[in-house]
DNA sequence: AGTAAATTACGCACCTTTTTGTAACCACGA
DNA sequence: TCGTGGTTACAAAAAGGTGCGTAATTTACT
C-alpha cells in the first residue's frame, strides 16, 4: 500500500484502519497500557513482524503512542493517544451498524437474530 | 481474505469496508443509481475484475443492491441499500476524525504543522 | 441486403505485484 | 539460556491486473 496521495480523508483513514489488525489492536489498547508481548498474547495469531508493522502504522497515524523505557530487557509500552481514544466510538458505531443490518445478510449463523423492524 | 469467523462485529465490518475501493464505491453510489460502466468512469483506475469483486462483496454485505435488466446489451444498475445509506454518515465521521486529528501527524504536506512540544 | 463491429457486464485463466509468514539474528542482563 | 522488542532476508500466499471470450442486439459500412 504505497502512500498514494488521496484527496479524500475517508480514503486516508481507511488506509490506516483497514485490514485485520488495526481494529483489534485498538480494541485491546482501549483496555489500557499494553506491552508488545501483551498484545501478542491478546492476539496469538499475529506474527511479531505484523505486530511491529501495524503498531508503527498506527503510531504514524497518531492513534497509538509508543513509550520506550531504558533497561535490562528493553521495555516498550503502547497506549492509545487522545485521538486514538476518540476513534474508538466511531469503530463501535460501525460494529453496531453491522449488527443492526445483520438481518439483511445471508449467514449460516446459529444465533437467532431478532429484529423488530 | 478467507471468511474467518470472527466473534467481533467490528472485525466483520472491517472485512467488508477495508481496502481501497469500498469507501470510494459507496461514495459514488451515494450520488444515486450507477451502472457498472458509470462506476468505472467514476474511478478509472479500478479494473473490471476488482469492480465486480468489490460490488459482489458489498452486495453480500447488504450495502449495495444489484438490479439486472434484460436487454440488448445487458444493463445492470447499482444502488445503496437503506443499510448502505446508514453507513455513509459513519464513514463521514471517520473522515472528519481524520481531518480533526491531522495536526498530530507527520506529513510531507505543504501545510505547515505547528507543534509546540 | 449482408457482413462486420460495437456495446454491456461480466467470467476465466494466466501472470505480476504486494502482503504476510518464517526463521534467524541482535543487544542486554538475570 | 531465556526473554525483551525489535530488524532483516527469504519464501509463501494473497491480491490485483490483463486480455480473451460471451450474449444479443443495434449501428456502420459496402
Automatic annotation (TrEMBL), chains A, B:
One of its GO terms (molecular function) is DNA binding. Pfam families: HxlR (PF01638). The keyword Transcription applies. This is Helix-turn-helix transcriptional regulator. InterPro entries: HTH_HxlR, WH-like_DNA-bd_sf, WH_DNA-bd_sf. Residues 8-106 form the HTH hxlR-type domain. Keywords: DNA-binding, Transcription, Transcription regulation. Gene3D superfamilies: Winged helix-like DNA-binding domain superfamily/Winged helix DNA-binding domain (1.10.10.10).
Amino acid at each position: 500500500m504505497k502512500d498514494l496521495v488521496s484527496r479524500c480523508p475517508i480514503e486516508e483513514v481507511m488506509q490506516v484502519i483497514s485490514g485485520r489488525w488495526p481494529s483489534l489492536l485498538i480494541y485491546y489498547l482501549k483496555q489500557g497500557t499494553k506491552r508488545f508481548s501483551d498484545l501478542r498474547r491478546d492476539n496469538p495469531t499475529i506474527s511479531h513482524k505484523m505486530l511491529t508493522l501495524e503498531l508503527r502504522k498506527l503510531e504514524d497515524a497518531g492513534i497509538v503512542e509508543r513509550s520506550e523505557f531504558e533497561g535490562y530487557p528493553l521495555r516498550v509500552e503502547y497506549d492509545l493517544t487522545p485521538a486514538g481514544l476518540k476513534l474508538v466510538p466511531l469503530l463501535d458505531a460501525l460494529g453496531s451498524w453491522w449488527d443492526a443490518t445483520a438481518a439483511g445478510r445471508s449467514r449460516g449463523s446459529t444465533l437467532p437474530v431478532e429484529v423488530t423492524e
